[in-house]
């Protein structure tokens, strides 16, 4: 099977190439989980737990989507289960925002403002926003990762943006034209 250099782990077979898949996907999986749970240490544990679950299920993987999307679905489900157990669903900030150059506040201040707005989102909304804006997944890829229809992804992202705009207020509103992205986007 041919190896692909993309962030999605496409064309890697978890049953036979799990070490390569782990190497390629660990950082993105960790970042996704970290964005959901807030804690670096918990994210490390949950990312490892997600990979353990994936390893145990590697022979059941069906190549209907990239292996990276399959891993992210396992990781997101692992993080959501953890959050439900810990009842931390309302305080999950993540790094998403890069300030436009014409703003009069620093990048770190903007990040703090957006992090605060993100605490208003449920884990399901945060997961969709993180996967789409931070990791750059298409709506279809997010849909596959989360196991929901593409229209539901669009709805969750729109709802998240509405909640965040309300929280940010008119002076700091996040608009579609602003840069809501992770590194390299």
TL;DR?
The protein contains 7 helices and no strands. By secondary structure, the protein is mainly α. The protein has 2 domains: 1-88, RNA polymerase sigma factor, region 2, helix turn helix motif (Rna Polymerase Sigma Factor, Chain: A, Orthogonal Bundle), CATH 1.10.1740.10; 91-185, Winged helix-like DNA-binding domain superfamily/Winged helix DNA-binding domain (Arc Repressor Mutant, subunit A).
Structure report:
Helix content is 61%, strand content 0%. Helix 1 (14-37) runs antiparallel to helix 2 (40-57) and helix 3 (67-86) packs across helix 6. The longest helix has 24 residues, at 14-37. The protein folds into two domains: 1-88, Rna Polymerase Sigma Factor, Chain: A; 91-185, Arc Repressor Mutant, subunit A (Orthogonal Bundle), CATH 1.10.10.10. By secondary structure, the protein is mainly α. The protein contains seven helices and no strands. Mean pLDDT is 74; it is low at 1-9, 87-105 and 172-185. The chain has helices at residues 14-37, 40-57, 67-86, 107-118, 123-134, 139-146, 150-168.
């Amino acid at each position: 099977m041919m190896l692909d250099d993309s962030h999605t782990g496409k064309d890697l077979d978890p049953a036979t190439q799990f070490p390569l898949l782990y190497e390629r996907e660990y950082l993105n999986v960790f970042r996704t989980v970290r964005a959901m749970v807030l804690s670096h240490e918990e994210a490390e544990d949950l990312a490892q737990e997600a990979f353990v679950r994936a390893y145990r299920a590697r022979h059941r993987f069906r190549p209907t989507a990239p292996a990276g999307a399959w891993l992210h679905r396992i990781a997101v489900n692992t993080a959501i289960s953890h959050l439900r157990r810990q009842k931390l669903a309302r305080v999950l900030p993540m790094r998403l925002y890069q300030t436009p150059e014409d703003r009069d506040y620093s990048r770190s201040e903007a990040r703090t403002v957006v992090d605060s707005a993100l605490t208003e989102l449920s884990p399901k909304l945060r997961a969709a926003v993180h996967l789409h804006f931070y990791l750059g997944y298409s709506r279809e890829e997010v849909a596959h990762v989360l196991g929901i229809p593409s229209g539901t992804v669009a709805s969750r992202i729109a709802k998240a943006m509405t909640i965040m705009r309300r929280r940010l207020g008119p002076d700091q509103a996040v608009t579609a034209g602003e840069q809501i992205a992770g590194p390299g986007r």
